[in-house]
């Protein structure tokens, strides 16, 4: 494998990681911002108020986007296996 092939595999892996984790991270960010605004408006500074809704939202988003994440990982593994079979790795 030359450096171009290694670069391609690394690029595909990083893109897959970013694409697969983006929905969960974006959802956690939105829920965290909403909770922060509610806490700032009501002046409630309860620590569990920040963690429990965020964890629930993360699990809900994970359940909804699991087929998308699985498809993304499957495409990456198919591409890498195709490179192995063709002798590119």
Quick take:
This protein is mainly alpha-helical.
Describe, in plain words, how this protein is organized in 3D.
This protein is an all-alpha fold. The chain has one domain. The protein is 88% helix and 0% strand. The protein is built from 2 helices and no strands. Helix 1 runs antiparallel to helix 2. The mean pLDDT is 89.
Secondary structure elements and pairings:
Blueprint: H1 3-42, H2 48-85
Helix pairs in contact: 1-2
Share of helical residues: over 70%
N-to-C SSE string, H for helix and E for strand: HH
- Number of helical runs? 2
Q: Tell me the major beta sheet.
A: none
Low-confidence stretches: none
Radius of gyration, CA atoms, in whole angstroms: 19 Å
Report how far apart the termini are: 5 Å
């Amino acid at each position: 494998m030359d450096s171009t092939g290694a670069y391609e595999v690394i690029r595909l892996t990083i893109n897959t990681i970013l694409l697969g984790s983006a929905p969960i991270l974006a959802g956690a960010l939105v829920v965290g911002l909403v909770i922060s605004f509610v806490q700032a408006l009501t002046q409630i500074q309860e620590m569990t108020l920040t963690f429990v809704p965020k964890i629930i939202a993360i699990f809900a988003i994970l359940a909804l986007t699991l087929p998308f994440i699985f498809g993304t990982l499957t495409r990456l593994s198919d591409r890498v296996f195709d490179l192995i079979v063709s002798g590119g790795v």
